[in-house]
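Have a close read of the entry that follows and walk me through the local backbone shapes. See right below:
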Amino acid sequence: MTSGFDRLSVKPGLPPMEAKLVDALPSGPGWQYEPKWDGFRCLIFKAGDEIELQSKSGKPLARYFPEVVAAVASLKADSVVLDGELIIPIGDHLSFDALQMRLHPAESRIRRLSSESPAQLMLFYCLVGDDGESLLDRPLVQRRSALERLYAIFRVPRFGAPRIRAVKKEQKHYHVDWSLVPADAARFENLVAGHLLKWVHFQQDTLGRDVELRYFRDTDGREVDFVVVERRSPLLLVECKWGDTDVDRSLRYLKARFPDTDAWQVSATGTKDFVSPDGIRVAPALRLLTGLI
């Protein structure tokens, strides 16, 4: 019996590439760093309507993660092979326990959990190129570029300044088409990222301004979703929340260090609209985004 996977240059059954234990991280130009995600390693195979999620040990995972299968099915590409990690964000952390709860024989339970706590794919790279050829022997930069072309992804680099204890970290990735993101809060953050990037490009192209879109994270774990900088100085700080919440502590921290910088905490479903005592505008996202037009 033939399968659609037979026409793939990289077929199910392939063991994933694994990290090697070393005494120290390598340094120098050309290196990329990936955190250790608290999830299930997963190879993704798509050949037409056939989709397989393969665990590190080679076992099938598709029946346990129907929402991920649906996300892969929505890809416009007819054939893809991807390497990544299945993760489930719960609050501000990744829950390995929530992943293990999916490995259950009852389909009704799996469907309920997939709705209550949907899984996501943290993708590393493509194993098959645009032309269908294997990328197994190609360098990481080519495999990752193929992933960005597949998803139409843009990157947001880290913002750092001498006055703050910034930390080196991988660039954040967002979809050009934010509707592809399955989780509500992440999709909203992606939407805001897209609007900010368009505004930055408009300022660059029409006015010649030296502006960039970045994000902030320091060594103490404080993080602000977006920092628009001009000539490396912060121009606008933006933190995204799904609903009405207290002013984010990380945003307050960064605003205190750059008091002359406009700072916004925007929400997708919240209705509050006010300016905090420390000068942060808290409002529905529409208030900020309409001002960027």
Remarks:
- The first strand starts at residue 40 and ends at 47.
